[in-house]
Amino acid sequence: MQIINKKDIPNTLTVKIEKLSNLGLGIAKVDGYVIFIPNSCPGDVVRVKITKKNKKFANAEIIEIVEPSAHRVEPICKMQKVCGSCQLQFIDYKAQLLYKKEIVSDTMRSIYGSDVEVRDVIPSPEVMEYRHKIQYPIGQTKESKRILAGYYKIGSHELVNIKHCPIQPEYCDRIIDFIRENAQELNISGYDENSGRGDLRHVVIRSSYANKKNLVVLVANADRVSEKLKKLSHSIYSQLENIQGVGVNLNHKKTNLILGEKTYILEGDGYIEENLCDKTFKIAPKTFFQVNPASANNIFRYVKKYITDNFSEPTILDAYAGITAFGICMSDIASKVVSIEEVKESVELAKQIIDENRITNIELHQGDAGKFFSEQSLLGRQFHLTILDPPRKGCSINSLDYALKLTKDKIIYVSCNPATLARDLKYLKEKGAEVEYIQPFDMFPHTYHIENVAIINLSEVCKSM
Ligand SMILES: C[S@@+](CC[C@H](N)C(=O)[O-])C[C@H]1O[C@@H](n2cnc3c(N)ncnc32)[C@H](O)[C@@H]1O
After folding, report:
1. Confidence (pTM)
2. Which residues carry out catalysis?
3. Is residue 274 within 6 Å of ligand 1 at its C-beta?
4. How high does pLDDT run on average in the chain?
5. Does domain 133-276 have CATH number 2.40.50.1070?
6. Which fold has domain 6-72?
7. In this structure, are residues 442 and 100 in contact, taking their beta carbons and an 8 Å threshold?
8. Is the CB of 369 under 6 A from ligand 1?
9. Which residue, judged by its Cα, is nearest atom 6 of ligand 1?
10. Which of 292, 184, 173 is nearest to 240 (CA)?
11. How far, in Å, from the CA of 390 to the mean position of ligand 1?
Protein backbone atom coordinates (compact mmCIF):
# COMPACT_ATOMS: atom_id res chain seq x y z
CA MET A 1 0.00 0.00 0.00
CA GLN A 2 1.48 3.39 -0.99
CA ILE A 3 0.53 6.01 1.61
CA ILE A 4 0.24 9.40 -0.07
CA ASN A 5 -1.81 11.19 2.48
CA LYS A 6 -2.15 10.98 6.25
CA LYS A 7 -5.87 10.29 5.64
CA ASP A 8 -4.87 6.94 4.13
CA ILE A 9 -3.63 5.69 7.50
CA PRO A 10 -6.33 3.54 9.11
CA ASN A 11 -7.23 4.34 12.72
CA THR A 12 -6.08 0.93 13.91
CA LEU A 13 -3.30 -1.10 12.34
CA THR A 14 -0.61 -3.67 13.08
CA VAL A 15 3.03 -2.56 12.77
CA LYS A 16 6.55 -3.71 13.61
CA ILE A 17 8.73 -1.41 15.74
CA GLU A 18 12.02 -0.63 13.92
CA LYS A 19 13.93 1.54 16.38
CA LEU A 20 13.64 4.07 19.18
CA SER A 21 13.32 7.83 18.70
CA ASN A 22 15.54 10.29 20.61
CA LEU A 23 12.69 10.55 23.15
CA GLY A 24 12.50 6.79 23.65
CA LEU A 25 9.34 6.28 21.59
CA GLY A 26 9.09 3.22 19.33
CA ILE A 27 9.20 4.08 15.61
CA ALA A 28 7.22 2.13 13.02
CA LYS A 29 6.99 3.11 9.35
CA VAL A 30 4.19 2.53 6.86
CA ASP A 31 5.53 3.31 3.38
CA GLY A 32 7.77 5.99 4.81
CA TYR A 33 5.05 7.51 7.04
CA VAL A 34 6.37 7.50 10.61
CA ILE A 35 4.33 6.40 13.64
CA PHE A 36 5.59 7.09 17.18
CA ILE A 37 4.43 4.58 19.81
CA PRO A 38 5.26 4.90 23.53
CA ASN A 39 6.08 1.82 25.62
CA SER A 40 7.16 -0.20 22.61
CA CYS A 41 10.46 -1.91 21.87
CA PRO A 42 12.29 -2.58 18.58
CA GLY A 43 11.19 -6.00 17.36
CA ASP A 44 7.68 -5.75 18.87
CA VAL A 45 4.76 -6.43 16.54
CA VAL A 46 1.90 -4.34 17.94
CA ARG A 47 -1.68 -3.48 17.08
CA VAL A 48 -2.05 0.26 17.64
CA LYS A 49 -4.68 2.95 17.67
CA ILE A 50 -3.73 6.25 16.02
CA THR A 51 -4.21 9.10 18.52
CA LYS A 52 -2.99 12.01 16.39
CA LYS A 53 -2.21 12.43 12.68
CA ASN A 54 0.20 15.03 11.39
CA LYS A 55 1.44 15.61 7.83
CA LYS A 56 4.64 13.61 8.18
CA PHE A 57 4.03 11.46 11.24
CA ALA A 58 1.38 10.13 13.61
CA ASN A 59 1.23 9.25 17.29
CA ALA A 60 -0.36 6.00 18.39
CA GLU A 61 -0.86 3.84 21.44
CA ILE A 62 -0.67 0.08 21.82
CA ILE A 63 -3.95 -1.86 21.88
CA GLU A 64 -2.29 -5.27 21.87
CA ILE A 65 1.23 -6.70 21.73
CA VAL A 66 0.87 -9.27 18.94
CA GLU A 67 4.46 -10.53 19.17
CA PRO A 68 6.76 -9.20 21.89
CA SER A 69 10.39 -8.28 21.20
CA ALA A 70 12.94 -10.68 22.69
CA HIS A 71 14.23 -7.71 24.74
CA ARG A 72 11.00 -7.11 26.69
CA VAL A 73 11.22 -7.66 30.46
CA GLU A 74 8.82 -7.09 33.36
CA PRO A 75 9.34 -3.45 34.55
CA ILE A 76 10.81 -3.26 38.06
CA CYS A 77 8.35 -0.53 39.00
CA LYS A 78 4.57 -1.03 39.12
CA MET A 79 4.09 2.67 38.31
CA GLN A 80 6.27 2.61 35.17
CA LYS A 81 3.48 3.31 32.66
CA VAL A 82 1.72 5.86 34.87
CA CYS A 83 4.69 7.90 36.07
CA GLY A 84 6.51 8.30 32.76
CA SER A 85 10.00 8.97 34.18
CA CYS A 86 11.48 5.57 33.18
CA GLN A 87 10.39 5.26 29.56
CA LEU A 88 12.60 2.19 28.86
CA GLN A 89 12.23 0.16 32.05
CA PHE A 90 10.46 -2.70 30.22
CA ILE A 91 13.52 -3.26 28.00
CA ASP A 92 16.45 -5.37 29.26
CA TYR A 93 19.41 -3.25 30.31
CA LYS A 94 21.89 -4.51 27.68
CA ALA A 95 19.41 -3.70 24.91
CA GLN A 96 18.77 -0.23 26.42
CA LEU A 97 22.49 0.49 25.98
CA LEU A 98 22.46 -0.66 22.34
CA TYR A 99 19.41 1.48 21.56
CA LYS A 100 20.97 4.51 23.26
CA LYS A 101 24.10 4.15 21.13
CA GLU A 102 21.85 4.01 18.05
CA ILE A 103 20.02 7.16 19.19
CA VAL A 104 23.36 9.03 19.43
CA SER A 105 24.53 7.74 16.01
CA ASP A 106 21.18 8.62 14.36
CA THR A 107 21.21 12.12 15.88
CA MET A 108 24.77 12.70 14.65
CA ARG A 109 23.87 11.51 11.16
CA SER A 110 20.80 13.74 10.91
CA ILE A 111 22.16 16.94 12.56
CA TYR A 112 25.98 16.73 12.41
CA GLY A 113 25.63 15.56 8.84
CA SER A 114 28.04 12.67 8.59
CA ASP A 115 29.11 9.55 10.38
CA VAL A 116 31.25 10.01 13.43
CA GLU A 117 32.65 7.21 15.56
CA VAL A 118 30.25 6.57 18.43
CA ARG A 119 31.71 4.06 20.89
CA ASP A 120 29.78 1.48 22.92
CA VAL A 121 27.90 3.03 25.84
CA ILE A 122 29.69 2.64 29.18
CA PRO A 123 27.00 1.26 31.51
CA SER A 124 25.99 2.80 34.82
CA PRO A 125 27.62 0.91 37.74
CA GLU A 126 24.20 1.00 39.45
CA VAL A 127 20.96 0.46 37.54
CA MET A 128 18.71 0.65 40.63
CA GLU A 129 18.82 3.33 43.35
CA TYR A 130 21.17 5.40 41.18
CA ARG A 131 19.33 8.73 41.26
CA HIS A 132 20.62 10.86 44.12
CA LYS A 133 18.60 14.03 43.59
CA ILE A 134 14.91 13.67 44.38
CA GLN A 135 12.38 16.43 43.73
CA TYR A 136 8.82 15.49 44.66
CA PRO A 137 5.96 17.94 44.09
CA ILE A 138 3.59 17.99 47.07
CA GLY A 139 -0.20 18.20 46.80
CA GLN A 140 -3.22 16.95 48.71
CA THR A 141 -6.40 15.01 48.00
CA LYS A 142 -9.51 17.14 47.44
CA GLU A 143 -11.79 15.65 50.09
CA SER A 144 -9.67 14.11 52.86
CA LYS A 145 -6.79 16.60 52.39
CA ARG A 146 -4.33 13.71 52.57
CA ILE A 147 -0.78 14.79 51.60
CA LEU A 148 0.39 13.49 48.22
CA ALA A 149 4.06 13.31 47.18
CA GLY A 150 5.30 11.84 43.92
CA TYR A 151 5.59 12.62 40.24
CA TYR A 152 3.16 13.92 37.66
CA LYS A 153 1.30 11.47 35.43
CA ILE A 154 2.71 11.43 31.87
CA GLY A 155 1.81 14.61 29.97
CA SER A 156 -0.30 16.01 32.82
CA HIS A 157 -0.12 17.84 36.13
CA GLU A 158 -1.98 15.08 37.96
CA LEU A 159 0.14 14.05 40.95
CA VAL A 160 0.86 10.33 41.36
CA ASN A 161 1.46 9.46 45.03
CA ILE A 162 4.66 7.40 44.87
CA LYS A 163 5.41 5.14 47.84
CA HIS A 164 8.46 3.48 46.32
CA CYS A 165 10.70 4.52 43.44
CA PRO A 166 13.27 1.82 42.63
CA ILE A 167 15.71 4.20 40.91
CA GLN A 168 16.10 6.31 44.06
CA PRO A 169 17.87 5.30 47.31
CA GLU A 170 15.32 3.29 49.29
CA TYR A 171 15.86 5.40 52.38
CA CYS A 172 14.32 8.39 50.57
CA ASP A 173 10.95 6.53 50.59
CA ARG A 174 11.16 6.54 54.40
CA ILE A 175 11.90 10.29 54.47
CA ILE A 176 9.00 11.08 52.14
CA ASP A 177 6.63 8.85 54.15
CA PHE A 178 7.68 10.59 57.35
CA ILE A 179 6.97 13.99 55.76
CA ARG A 180 3.54 12.82 54.50
CA GLU A 181 2.51 11.63 57.98
CA ASN A 182 3.99 14.47 60.03
CA ALA A 183 2.90 17.29 57.71
CA GLN A 184 -0.66 16.03 58.10
CA GLU A 185 -0.39 16.05 61.91
CA LEU A 186 1.08 19.56 61.94
CA ASN A 187 -1.76 20.79 59.74
CA ILE A 188 0.63 21.61 56.87
CA SER A 189 -1.30 21.67 53.60
CA GLY A 190 -0.08 20.47 50.18
CA TYR A 191 0.20 22.97 47.31
CA ASP A 192 -2.54 23.48 44.73
CA GLU A 193 -1.09 24.70 41.42
CA ASN A 194 -4.38 26.13 40.19
CA SER A 195 -5.21 28.32 43.17
CA GLY A 196 -1.57 28.94 44.18
CA ARG A 197 -2.58 28.01 47.78
CA GLY A 198 -1.10 25.51 50.23
CA ASP A 199 1.95 25.46 52.52
CA LEU A 200 4.32 22.90 51.02
CA ARG A 201 5.18 22.88 47.26
CA HIS A 202 8.05 20.43 46.94
CA VAL A 203 10.42 18.24 48.90
CA VAL A 204 13.95 18.12 47.53
CA ILE A 205 16.44 15.53 48.80
CA ARG A 206 20.16 15.48 47.96
CA SER A 207 21.30 12.02 48.96
CA SER A 208 24.96 11.06 49.23
CA TYR A 209 26.14 7.93 47.39
CA ALA A 210 29.36 8.03 49.41
CA ASN A 211 28.02 8.06 52.98
CA LYS A 212 24.22 7.63 52.57
CA LYS A 213 23.47 10.93 54.38
CA ASN A 214 20.63 13.18 53.18
CA LEU A 215 19.97 16.89 52.93
CA VAL A 216 16.21 17.54 53.01
CA VAL A 217 14.77 20.82 51.70
CA LEU A 218 11.11 21.70 52.27
CA VAL A 219 10.00 24.19 49.61
CA ALA A 220 7.44 26.51 51.20
CA ASN A 221 4.82 28.60 49.44
CA ALA A 222 5.58 31.55 51.71
CA ASP A 223 7.84 34.57 52.17
CA ARG A 224 8.99 33.54 55.66
CA VAL A 225 9.61 30.29 57.50
CA SER A 226 6.49 29.26 59.44
CA GLU A 227 6.52 27.68 62.92
CA LYS A 228 4.86 24.57 61.44
CA LEU A 229 7.73 24.06 59.00
CA LYS A 230 10.29 24.70 61.74
CA LYS A 231 8.64 21.91 63.78
CA LEU A 232 8.58 19.56 60.79
CA SER A 233 12.28 20.27 60.08
CA HIS A 234 13.15 19.53 63.70
CA SER A 235 11.19 16.23 63.67
CA ILE A 236 12.91 15.10 60.44
CA TYR A 237 16.35 15.88 61.86
CA SER A 238 15.79 14.45 65.33
CA GLN A 239 13.70 11.38 64.51
CA LEU A 240 15.15 10.06 61.27
CA GLU A 241 18.58 8.53 60.79
CA ASN A 242 21.10 9.59 58.13
CA ILE A 243 19.99 13.20 57.93
CA GLN A 244 22.89 15.59 57.29
CA GLY A 245 20.68 18.68 57.40
CA VAL A 246 17.20 20.11 56.90
CA GLY A 247 16.32 23.45 55.33
CA VAL A 248 13.31 25.46 54.21
CA ASN A 249 13.40 27.15 50.82
CA LEU A 250 10.97 29.99 50.17
CA ASN A 251 9.19 30.05 46.82
CA HIS A 252 5.84 31.84 46.67
CA LYS A 253 6.06 32.87 43.01
CA LYS A 254 3.88 31.34 40.26
CA THR A 255 6.79 29.67 38.50
CA ASN A 256 7.96 26.30 37.21
CA LEU A 257 11.24 26.72 39.08
CA ILE A 258 11.30 24.34 42.03
CA LEU A 259 13.61 26.28 44.33
CA GLY A 260 13.21 29.95 45.20
CA GLU A 261 16.20 32.19 45.86
CA LYS A 262 16.60 31.76 49.60
CA THR A 263 17.15 28.54 51.60
CA TYR A 264 17.35 28.65 55.41
CA ILE A 265 19.21 25.69 56.88
CA LEU A 266 17.39 25.06 60.18
CA GLU A 267 19.02 21.82 61.31
CA GLY A 268 22.48 20.33 60.71
CA ASP A 269 24.53 21.13 57.59
CA GLY A 270 23.54 22.82 54.34
CA TYR A 271 25.28 20.25 52.17
CA ILE A 272 26.00 16.56 51.62
CA GLU A 273 29.40 15.12 50.80
CA GLU A 274 30.31 13.03 47.75
CA ASN A 275 33.57 11.44 46.62
CA LEU A 276 34.91 11.69 43.07
CA CYS A 277 38.43 10.82 41.86
CA ASP A 278 39.56 10.50 45.52
CA LYS A 279 38.47 14.07 46.28
CA THR A 280 35.65 15.06 48.65
CA PHE A 281 32.96 17.38 47.27
CA LYS A 282 30.19 19.32 48.98
CA ILE A 283 26.77 19.60 47.36
CA ALA A 284 24.27 22.25 48.49
CA PRO A 285 20.51 22.46 47.69
CA LYS A 286 20.99 24.45 44.48
CA THR A 287 24.35 23.17 43.26
CA PHE A 288 24.45 21.37 39.96
CA PHE A 289 25.83 17.89 40.47
CA GLN A 290 25.27 14.81 38.32
CA VAL A 291 22.30 12.85 39.72
CA ASN A 292 24.14 9.53 39.31
CA PRO A 293 27.43 9.91 41.23
CA ALA A 294 28.70 6.39 40.41
CA SER A 295 28.36 6.96 36.67
CA ALA A 296 29.70 10.53 37.02
CA ASN A 297 32.81 9.07 38.66
CA ASN A 298 33.26 6.90 35.54
CA ILE A 299 33.15 10.02 33.35
CA PHE A 300 35.63 11.97 35.48
CA ARG A 301 38.04 9.01 35.60
CA TYR A 302 37.68 8.50 31.83
CA VAL A 303 38.45 12.14 31.04
CA LYS A 304 41.36 12.09 33.49
CA LYS A 305 42.85 9.01 31.83
CA TYR A 306 42.41 10.52 28.37
CA ILE A 307 44.22 13.70 29.45
CA THR A 308 47.00 11.73 31.20
CA ASP A 309 47.54 9.63 28.05
CA ASN A 310 47.67 12.65 25.74
CA PHE A 311 49.20 15.53 27.71
CA SER A 312 51.90 16.24 30.23
CA GLU A 313 50.84 18.76 32.88
CA PRO A 314 48.52 20.74 30.59
CA THR A 315 46.72 23.99 31.31
CA ILE A 316 42.97 23.31 31.43
CA LEU A 317 39.97 25.59 31.04
CA ASP A 318 36.93 24.10 32.85
CA ALA A 319 33.90 25.93 31.45
CA TYR A 320 30.31 25.65 32.72
CA ALA A 321 32.07 24.28 35.75
CA GLY A 322 29.36 23.94 38.45
CA ILE A 323 31.34 23.21 41.61
CA THR A 324 34.41 22.78 39.34
CA ALA A 325 34.08 18.99 39.54
CA PHE A 326 36.15 18.43 36.36
CA GLY A 327 38.78 21.01 37.34
CA ILE A 328 39.18 19.61 40.84
CA CYS A 329 39.39 16.00 39.59
CA MET A 330 42.00 17.01 36.96
CA SER A 331 44.00 19.35 39.24
CA ASP A 332 46.70 16.80 40.12
CA ILE A 333 47.56 16.11 36.46
CA ALA A 334 47.37 19.76 35.32
CA SER A 335 49.83 22.58 35.71
CA LYS A 336 46.95 25.03 36.03
CA VAL A 337 43.13 24.90 35.93
CA VAL A 338 40.95 27.94 35.26
CA SER A 339 37.21 27.55 35.77
CA ILE A 340 34.15 29.63 34.88
CA GLU A 341 30.63 29.15 36.29
CA GLU A 342 27.73 31.59 36.52
CA VAL A 343 26.06 30.42 39.77
CA LYS A 344 27.63 32.23 42.73
CA GLU A 345 26.70 29.52 45.27
CA SER A 346 28.53 26.87 43.19
CA VAL A 347 31.67 29.02 42.89
CA GLU A 348 31.68 29.71 46.65
CA LEU A 349 31.30 25.99 47.34
CA ALA A 350 34.09 25.21 44.85
CA LYS A 351 36.38 27.59 46.79
CA GLN A 352 35.61 25.70 50.01
CA ILE A 353 36.16 22.27 48.36
CA ILE A 354 39.48 23.42 46.85
CA ASP A 355 40.69 24.68 50.23
CA GLU A 356 39.58 21.51 52.04
CA ASN A 357 41.32 19.31 49.46
CA ARG A 358 44.42 21.56 49.68
CA ILE A 359 44.53 22.25 45.97
CA THR A 360 46.61 25.26 44.97
CA ASN A 361 46.55 25.39 41.15
CA ILE A 362 42.91 26.32 40.42
CA GLU A 363 41.77 29.84 39.50
CA LEU A 364 37.99 30.26 39.95
CA HIS A 365 35.84 32.79 38.09
CA GLN A 366 32.15 33.57 38.39
CA GLY A 367 30.14 34.90 35.45
CA ASP A 368 28.89 34.18 31.96
CA ALA A 369 31.16 31.77 30.06
CA GLY A 370 30.88 33.62 26.70
CA LYS A 371 31.78 36.97 28.27
CA PHE A 372 34.66 35.42 30.23
CA PHE A 373 36.01 33.72 27.08
CA SER A 374 36.10 37.04 25.20
CA GLU A 375 37.91 38.76 28.10
CA GLN A 376 40.50 35.95 28.30
CA SER A 377 40.97 36.09 24.55
CA LEU A 378 41.65 39.84 24.73
CA LEU A 379 44.31 39.07 27.33
CA GLY A 380 45.87 36.65 24.82
CA ARG A 381 45.43 33.70 27.16
CA GLN A 382 45.43 30.11 25.83
CA PHE A 383 44.92 26.63 27.30
CA HIS A 384 46.11 23.23 26.10
CA LEU A 385 42.59 21.93 26.44
CA THR A 386 39.12 23.16 27.24
CA ILE A 387 36.36 21.15 28.89
CA LEU A 388 32.94 22.42 27.83
CA ASP A 389 30.03 21.03 29.87
CA PRO A 390 27.10 23.37 29.09
CA PRO A 391 23.43 22.92 30.08
CA ARG A 392 21.00 21.04 27.74
CA LYS A 393 20.68 24.00 25.36
CA GLY A 394 24.39 23.71 24.46
CA CYS A 395 26.86 26.55 23.74
CA SER A 396 26.25 29.86 21.99
CA ILE A 397 28.05 30.50 18.67
CA ASN A 398 30.00 33.24 20.43
CA SER A 399 31.23 30.78 23.11
CA LEU A 400 32.23 28.22 20.48
CA ASP A 401 34.16 30.84 18.48
CA TYR A 402 36.07 31.95 21.56
CA ALA A 403 36.61 28.38 22.78
CA LEU A 404 38.45 27.76 19.47
CA LYS A 405 40.60 30.85 20.00
CA LEU A 406 41.41 29.98 23.62
CA THR A 407 42.30 26.32 23.03
CA LYS A 408 45.63 25.06 21.66
CA ASP A 409 44.99 21.33 21.19
CA LYS A 410 41.71 19.72 22.20
CA ILE A 411 38.20 20.47 23.35
CA ILE A 412 36.45 17.85 25.46
CA TYR A 413 32.73 18.54 25.11
CA VAL A 414 30.50 16.88 27.73
CA SER A 415 26.81 16.93 26.94
CA CYS A 416 23.50 15.52 28.20
CA ASN A 417 21.69 16.41 24.98
CA PRO A 418 22.74 14.62 21.75
CA ALA A 419 20.81 17.10 19.56
CA THR A 420 22.56 20.27 20.79
CA LEU A 421 25.88 18.39 20.91
CA ALA A 422 25.46 17.42 17.22
CA ARG A 423 24.56 21.03 16.32
CA ASP A 424 27.63 22.44 18.14
CA LEU A 425 29.96 19.78 16.70
CA LYS A 426 28.70 20.65 13.21
CA TYR A 427 29.60 24.29 13.83
CA LEU A 428 33.06 23.35 15.14
CA LYS A 429 33.60 21.08 12.11
CA GLU A 430 32.74 23.98 9.76
CA LYS A 431 35.47 25.97 11.56
CA GLY A 432 38.04 23.25 10.83
CA ALA A 433 37.87 21.16 14.02
CA GLU A 434 37.79 17.38 13.80
CA VAL A 435 35.67 15.13 16.02
CA GLU A 436 37.87 12.22 17.05
CA TYR A 437 35.04 10.16 18.57
CA ILE A 438 32.11 10.23 20.96
CA GLN A 439 32.04 8.17 24.13
CA PRO A 440 28.51 7.78 25.59
CA PHE A 441 27.92 7.03 29.27
CA ASP A 442 24.68 5.78 30.74
CA MET A 443 23.96 8.25 33.50
CA PHE A 444 20.21 7.64 33.49
CA PRO A 445 19.34 3.91 33.26
CA HIS A 446 15.75 3.10 32.15
CA THR A 447 15.24 6.56 30.61
CA TYR A 448 16.03 7.73 27.08
CA HIS A 449 18.61 10.20 28.41
CA ILE A 450 22.28 9.70 27.59
CA GLU A 451 25.45 11.59 28.49
CA ASN A 452 28.21 11.98 25.88
CA VAL A 453 31.86 12.95 25.93
CA ALA A 454 33.09 14.19 22.54
CA ILE A 455 36.83 14.46 21.88
CA ILE A 456 37.61 17.28 19.43
CA ASN A 457 40.98 17.97 17.83
CA LEU A 458 41.87 21.47 16.77
CA SER A 459 44.13 22.36 13.91
CA GLU A 460 45.80 25.62 12.93
CA VAL A 461 42.88 26.16 10.51
CA CYS A 462 40.47 26.63 13.44
CA LYS A 463 42.45 29.46 14.94
CA SER A 464 42.78 31.39 11.71
CA MET A 465 38.99 31.39 11.08
C1 LIG B 1 25.67 20.49 32.91
S2 LIG B 1 26.18 21.52 34.23
C3 LIG B 1 27.87 21.03 34.38
C4 LIG B 1 28.50 21.28 35.72
C5 LIG B 1 29.84 20.63 35.99
N6 LIG B 1 30.73 20.62 34.84
C7 LIG B 1 29.70 19.23 36.57
O8 LIG B 1 30.03 18.25 35.89
O9 LIG B 1 29.25 19.09 37.71
C10 LIG B 1 26.21 23.08 33.48
C11 LIG B 1 26.66 24.22 34.37
O12 LIG B 1 26.75 25.40 33.57
C13 LIG B 1 26.32 26.52 34.33
N14 LIG B 1 25.96 27.56 33.34
C15 LIG B 1 24.84 27.64 32.58
N16 LIG B 1 24.90 28.67 31.74
C17 LIG B 1 26.10 29.29 31.96
C18 LIG B 1 26.75 30.43 31.39
N19 LIG B 1 26.19 31.13 30.42
N20 LIG B 1 27.96 30.75 31.84
C21 LIG B 1 28.56 30.04 32.83
N22 LIG B 1 28.00 28.96 33.41
C23 LIG B 1 26.78 28.58 32.98
C24 LIG B 1 25.20 25.96 35.18
O25 LIG B 1 24.98 26.76 36.32
C26 LIG B 1 25.74 24.55 35.53
O27 LIG B 1 26.48 24.59 36.72
Report:
1. 0.93
2. 416
3. no
4. 94
5. yes
6. OB fold (Dihydrolipoamide Acetyltransferase, E2P) (2.40.50)
7. yes
8. yes
9. 321
10. 173
11. 5
